[in-house]
Write a structure and sequence with these properties.
- By secondary structure, this protein is mainly alpha-helical.
- It has 56 helices and four strands.
- A two-stranded antiparallel sheet has the order 1-2.
């Protein structure tokens, strides 16, 4: 280190060498710089004090010393990453700014370098200096201007500006005006072209600094790219820089990219393009040898020591092979593709094999070289800097993707994502061009990361794609264009897969494929795409690099989970286990047949221990593969190149086993019919995982168990499409006995691992009710006791899962009639309903709704005996808690009002007359009425209307007499006329048709208001602003017609004059709707009721008979005889039906 000291007798400066103390090795990137500086013998403040003292001693007229002091500032701050305190920072910044203003131009580069070091990560502390630096006549704007001839000076100014733009978490960011100035400066630099007097490396460094500046602005979270021109300008320069210096490629970009559905602006002729590519590959020669030095995952554009090796030391990837596959991949079967290319992708990675395989491309001898050694070194360095520009542009693009809305981004889809080339035209350049042709593995990985970010969340955009039918139109629909792009993405990514040798880049390719698979609408595309992906990824499951193995399994998981079940995937799962594995140089095919060894170790109940090793009728090879990875010891031939995993480990590395467990869970969820024959074996896998020490393995074992249980329950649901003889036998009790005698109870009681407890609760709630009733009594008691105990857990996740599980158990037929269990469950749920966690309260409210459903079922099946046994005090407590919960958040409220409706239906006459209940009942009904009228979510209002309908079913309540009757009917009448959601309207119309006696509707005025509201609702049943609601309009009319006929069958003589008047005004419209209702025959309406033709005719005839009797009493006082009107409708209906039959 160099210290500056005053020379006696004046203010001249001299450089004094300070002896370097003996030091150990410097700490790595994660080491402590403070400890390192302590060993040096001084702290940060000492460095700052030294720099301040040096500046105080140097006048601005001593320009040489000013230059040296600035070099010292730059060196010390960068070398030791010194954190400068605010006071010293202010002094040093003032010094540098004054020096820029007063010193000669030859010192400016060193001063700007010092300034850049000072402002790095100190932007928020530099606010008062921004006018001098970034104002209208700011120094940095002057020096970075395009008119500035000194490129080094311009570069130093841009670097300082980029460092100023770095955001500091928790600190205020640059003002909008300064952000805009910086953005325009960076953008103009990226849009500029290199002049002849500027060398390539300096220009690359200038572009790098501008790209870092824009990336900092985007990462700061303040830059909103809202204007089309601003965003289009940025994307245009980023696309230009993405290909900067890429061998054999030169594209011209316009200043602005605009959203467009088709590729644009690719100004290249096919002949020139091909020639330039050939020339470039002849120059670069050997392309893709394995990169030296380990690259950090996701690291973009960092200045690392191995950057020079990034381009000069790569593996082979020549033009001929690319052209072969670009033509053949899409048209050839996957087995042929592997025959041609897998030898390249899976040959041994040693240098000898590479040199012998493509000897003509290996290296250029000294006699053939066009450059001397010095020139070759310069060329290598230049390619390295060009690669850094491309990496910087891709990193910047990644930040831009995160800064703009996806719907805006997808307007530029065609500019960055490949599409199949048209006849006679070259393929447009895209991110896949870089992934396939860039000589730098790091740059290829960057482009794939960007492509992954674009594909992530693209499901809705890609859902329009369709090419299942042959396209024979004069124009190409957008759906076909997107489908073509999806196919091209598959083709290019599979090409990149077989051609890649860098493990890090290979991992990114597979991750990108997984993102594509997760978002593509395969059910709308011609089959075959997934088959190619499936067959080409199988060998990589046994790749030597652990990250490649993990990402390969992730891709398989994406395939078995996307739009499951897909017929194409079902066929793939039934492929022979060895299919596609024999060509892998690193594979271990016998591993796929060795899962039977594990079954010998753990013999299953009911089958002999010496089960044969080869069973030709294996239904699913992927299950066997995953089981073998999870439970079998690792094999020597699959040793990991990654030193992070100990070589002495018995099993596969944890990430591989975890991904295998996730694949199993996804496969069971999507293709349970294929997994059910492995039920007991998969149960043993789950048990084994939950017995291990690794918490992550335990957790995923519990999740697998939950999916197995859920799969069985789904098969036994009433609406299940699985035939009874194809379902898992109810003897699945063996499976659950194994679980409950195994590690599941221990997992439920493992309070040190709350996430595991949560998953174990979810698993226990997935037991088949029929299986639970067949369990031994002590196992049933164990399940109930554990869940009731966990309901008092202090961890909200565990408590929520336990509350939900109790809500499942309360529906079990073998438990719901047990009054003591119902009471214990009710108390536990009410406890959770008052928890401070919204998630716990939401789960508890759902369970309370289920519990009250059980009360109604018991009331209907067991009669009064159950009601008398159930505690009045507990019932009152439930009413009060549900009423309070109805004022909570919507997720709690929707089930709270459902519970209220059931509880008010459950009440007996002695409850209603009990003074303790009276006030609570009034509050509960008022809560329902206010919820119906509220602006809550439609689900909440739907449940509230349903709940009021339940209230009306209780004959013990004073419906029609109590003051709340009018409020309830008015709320429902308002909703049936004007609610935007038709499902809510349907439920309110259903509620209005429930009272069975005329007295329940109150006085004539109230009855007529309800009638009028239903007529208006019928006429508005097709009026909607939301097209999605239109499909419910028929169900709405059905429900309203039922309600109108129901009201007519109950009407009394004082009601008829108003009804007659309504028919006079709207008779034709009502008649048309009622005839349609009568004609529609068997139809299931939204209320879940089946009303066939005979029942509808019977209801109409009943209304006619009732009205005839009343009209006789009126003796012709009504203007229109309603009975005659209805008879006319019935006659028309009968005549129409006879004509139809004839």
């Amino acid at each position: 280190p160099v210290a500056i000291a005053p020379v006696p007798g004046g203010r001249k400066m001299a450089a004094v060498e300070v002896p370097q103390p003996e030091l150990g090795p410097e700490p790595g990137p994660g080491g402590s710089f403070r400890r390192y500086l302590a060993r040096l013998g001084f702290l940060f403040q000492d460095v700052c004090a030294l720099l301040v003292q040096a500046c105080q001693l140097v006048n601005f007229d001593q320009e040489h010393l000013v230059s040296k002091v600035c070099q010292l500032i730059h060196h010390l701050l960068n070398r030791f990453q010194v954190i400068v305190d605010e006071q010293n920072l202010n002094f040093l910044l003032s010094y540098c700014i004054s020096a820029l203003k007063q010193c000669s131009s030859w010192t400016h580069v060193e001063i700007l370098q010092a300034l850049a070091a000072l402002v790095y990560n100190n932007g928020p502390k530099c606010q008062k200096y921004l006018p001098d630096l970034l104002g209208k006549a700011g120094l940095l704007l002057q020096f970075s201007d395009s008119a500035q001839l000194d490129v080094e000076l311009r570069r130093a100014a841009v670097r300082s500006m980029a460092n100023l733009c770095l955001s500091v978490p928790g600190q205020p960011y640059l003002d909008e005006s300064y952000r805009s100035v910086c953005f325009q400066t960076f953008l103009s630099i990226l849009q500029s072209s290199k002049t002849s007097d500027v060398d390539d490396i300096t220009f690359c460094m200038l572009l790098q600094n501008a790209l870092k500046g824009i990336q900092s602005l985007l990462n700061g979270g303040k830059m909103k790219l809202m204007q089309t021109d601003q965003l289009g300008s940025l994307l245009a320069v980023l696309k230009k820089c993405m290909f900067h210096g890429l061998p054999g490629l030169s594209i011209e970009m316009p200043p602005v990219l605009y959203p467009a559905p088709l590729p644009q602006y690719d100004k290249r002729s096919p002949v020139k393009q091909e020639q330039s590519e050939l020339a470039a590959f002849k120059q670069t020669g050997n392309r893709r040898k394995k990169s030296k030095g380990k690259q950090k995952k996701g690291e973009f554009g960092e200045d690392t020591k191995d950057d020079l090796a990034d381009t000069g030391n790569e593996s082979i990837h020549e033009t001929d092979m690319l052209k072969l596959h670009l033509r053949d991949v899409q048209n050839s079967p996957c087995s042929d593709l592997r025959t041609h290319a897998l030898d390249v992708a899976y040959m041994p990675t040693g240098k000898d094999h590479l040199s012998s395989h493509y000897n003509s491309w290996k290296r250029i001898s000294s006699s053939e070289s066009e450059y001397s050694d010095a020139e070759g070194g310069i060329q290598s360095k230049m390619r390295s800097y060009q690669a850094k520009v491309r990496q910087g542009a891709l990193a910047c693009f990644l930040s831009a993707i995160k800064s703009i809305e996806k719907r805006v981004l997808y307007g530029y889809w065609s500019a960055f994502v490949p599409d199949a080339p048209g006849i006679g035209s070259p393929q447009s350049v895209s991110l896949m061009t870089i992934a396939l042709k860039d000589p730098s593995p790091k740059t290829r990985a960057c482009s794939l990361q960007v492509l992954s970010a674009i594909l992530e969340g693209s499901k809705q955009f890609l859902s329009v794609a369709e090419d299942a039918n042959d396209h024979k139109r004069a124009f190409t629909p957008f759906s076909v264009t997107i489908a073509s792009s999806i196919r091209e993405l598959h083709r290019c990514l599979l090409l990149a897969l077989v051609a890649e040798s860098s493990s890090q880049t290979l991992t990114q390719i597979i991750k990108c494929l997984a993102n594509l698979v997760s978002n593509a609408p395969y059910n709308r595309l011609k089959p075959g795409l997934l088959t190619r992906v499936w067959n080409q990824i199988k060998p990589y499951i046994c790749h030597k690099d652990v990250n490649v193995r993990v990402s390969s399994l992730t891709l398989l998981g994406a395939i078995v989970s996307i739009q499951a079940p897909l017929p194409e995937v079902q066929l793939l799962l039934q492929q022979p286990s060895s299919s596609g594995l024999s060509n892998s140089g690193t594979g271990t095919p016998h591993r796929f047949n060795s899962s039977e060894q594990w079954r010998k170790t753990f013999p299953l109940e009911g089958e002999p221990a010496d089960n044969p090793g080869n069973m030709p009728s294996e239904p699913c090879w992927l299950i066997r593969l995953c089981i073998s990875i999870i439970v079998l010891p690792r094999e020597d031939s699959c040793s990991d190149s990654d030193a992070n995993f100990p070589s002495g480990c018995v099993y596969e590395p944890s990430p591989v086993r975890l991904e295998s467990l996730q694949v199993l869970a996804l496969l069971v969820k999507g293709y349970f019919s294929m997994a059910q024959s492995y039920l007991l074996e998969l149960g043993e896998v789950a048990c084994k995982c939950m017995e291990e020490m690794d918490p992550s393995i335990q957790l995923h074992g519990a999740k697998l168990l939950e999916e197995l249980g859920t799969g069985v329950v789904q098969q036994y649901k009433p609406d299940s499409a699985v035939a009874p003889d194809h379902r898992v036998p109810v003897s699945v009790v063996t499976f659950w006995t194994m679980m409950l005698n195994g590690p599941l109870p221990g997992a439920l009681q493992n309070s040190q691992h709350a996430t595991l407890q949560t998953s174990a609760c979810d698993a226990l709630s997935s037991i088949l009710p029929e299986a639970f009733s067949s369990l031994q009594n002590d196992r049933q008691i164990l399940c109930i006791t554990l869940l009731l105990g966990l309901n008092h857990s202090e961890n909200p996740l565990v408590k929520a899962a336990a509350a939900r599980a109790l809500g499942v158990y309360i529906l079990f037929s073998c438990l719901r009639q047990d009054v003591m269990f119902v009471a214990d469950t009710a108390n536990a749920i009410l406890n959770s309903l008052h928890d401070k966690s919204p998630n716990v309260r939401a789960k508890a409210a759902w369970s309370l709704g289920n519990l009250t459903d059980t009360l109604i079922v018991n009331m209907e099946t067991m009669g009064q005996s159950f009601q008398e046994e159930f505690s009045d005090l507990l019932l009152l407590k439930m009413l009060r808690s549900a009423t309070e919960a109805s004022k909570d958040k919507d997720k709690v409220k929707s089930n709270a009002v459902r519970a209220l409706g059931n509880l008010l239906h459950f009440l007996q006459p002695y409850h209603i007359t009990n003074p303790r209940f009276r006030e609570t009942i009034e509050e509960s009904i008022q809560a329902l009425i206010s919820t119906v009228q509220s602006e809550a979510t439609m689900k909440v209002r739907w449940n509230a209307c349903y709940a009021l309908g339940n209230v009306f079913k209780n004959p013990a309540l004073p419906l029609g007499e109590a003051p709340w009757t009018t409020q309830a009917y008015n709320a429902l009448s308002s909703v049936v006329k004007s609610c935007k959601n038709f499902k809510v309207r349907i439920k309110s119309a259903m509620a209005l048709s429930i009272p069975s006696k005329r007295e329940c509707y109150g006085p004539t005025e109230q009855f007529c208001q309800i009638w009028s509201a239903l007529v208006v609702a019928l006429q508005k049943s097709e009026d909607t602003e939301d097209f999605l609601e239109f499909k419910y309009s028929a169900s709405l009319r059905t429900q309203i017609c039922q309600a109108l006929i129901h009201l007519l069958s109950l009407a009394k003589n004082t009601d008829l004059p108003f009804i007659s008047e309504t028919i006079t005004e709207n008779g034709d419209a009502i008649k048309a709707y009622v005839l349609q209702y009568m004609k529609s025959g068997v139809e299931e309406n939204e209320a879940g009721m089946h009303t066939n033709l005979c029942e509808r005719e019977k209801a109409l005839k009943g209304a006619i008979e009732h009205l005839c009797g009343i009209e006789k009493q009126l003796e012709g006082k009504a203007r229109v005889r309603v009975s005659v009107y209805l008879e006319d409708i019935l006659t028309n209906h009968v005549n129409a039906a006879e004509l139809t039959e004839a």
